[in-house]
Automatic annotation (TrEMBL):
Pfam families: DDDD. This is Essential MCU regulator, mitochondrial. It comes from Drosophila erecta (Fruit fly). Keywords: Calcium, Calcium transport, Ion transport, Membrane, Mitochondrion, Mitochondrion inner membrane, Transit peptide, Transmembrane, Transmembrane helix, Transport. The gene is Dere\GG20991. One of its GO terms (cellular component) is uniplex complex. Essential regulatory subunit of the mitochondrial calcium uniporter complex (uniplex), a complex that mediates calcium uptake into mitochondria.
């Protein structure tokens, strides 16, 4: 269902691009210049870019400290709000149903 929803806008956009290229041939050069990062001028496909060997480790080194900093900030803000009586959680006992 999602694919069918995406198929119409994509085909419509491709039709618009092909009409613009047909109307003005210099637009084809703009389109080719945009795609030049994938292909050489001869039309050959460029080689796959090098991958970072420790990419997953770098992601963990960025995400885990970010989670700890975010948790610390939210804990401090919650304590500040409770100390100043700006927000005090209710002491409802829902376990005694």
């Amino acid at each position: 269902m999602i694919v069918s929803r995406l198929a119409f806008p994509i085909s419509h956009a491709l039709q618009r691009v092909s009409r613009r290229v047909a109307e003005h041939p210099h637009n084809l050069r703009i389109l080719q210049r945009h795609m030049s990062s994938v292909y050489f001028r001869s039309g050959a496909i460029k080689p796959k870019p090098e991958e970072m060997p420790f990419g997953l480790l770098a992601i963990f080194c960025a995400v885990i400290p970010g989670l700890f900093v975010g948790a610390t900030i939210s804990k401090n803000v919650a304590n500040f709000l409770e100390e100043n009586d700006l927000f005090v959680p209710a002491d409802d006992d829902d376990d005694e149903d």
